[in-house]
């Protein structure tokens, strides 16, 4: 896999996680609107609505965390299957090759 493909895959996963955060934020607003409507209709009290919002937001956060964990696990699985060299090892190899090239040029 080329560096561009790797970067594209990382970008995709980052956007997916960002989407999850956006959905969570939007969900809180939607939850508040729905619960406010229940209060207006007299189906729940203001106290109950506050508790309901907190509980639903908490469940949404738990779901977002589970989603993020699943995405991270999938990324690690894909990376592990590819047997990619960690960036630090790659950089070390580049430095070794450059050093060897300099040594060869100095002895020529």
Automatic annotation (TrEMBL):
Q: Which domain of life is it from?
A: Bacteria
Q: What is this protein called?
A: Polyhydroxyalkanoate synthesis regulator
Q: Output the lineage of the source organism.
A: Bacteria, Bacillati, Bacillota, Bacilli, Bacillales
């Amino acid at each position: 896999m080329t560096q561009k493909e790797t970067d594209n895959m990382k970008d995709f996963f980052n956007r997916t996680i960002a989407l999850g955060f956006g959905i969570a934020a939007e969900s809180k607003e939607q939850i508040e609107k729905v619960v406010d409507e229940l209060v207006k209709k007299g189906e729940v009290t203001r106290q109950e609505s506050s508790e309901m919002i907190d509980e639903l937001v908490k469940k949404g956060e738990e779901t977002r965390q589970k989603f993020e964990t699943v995405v991270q696990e999938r990324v690690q699985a894909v990376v592990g299957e590819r047997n990619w060299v960690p960036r630090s090892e790659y950089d070390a190899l580049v430095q070794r090759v450059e050093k060897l090239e300099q040594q060869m040029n100095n002895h020529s």
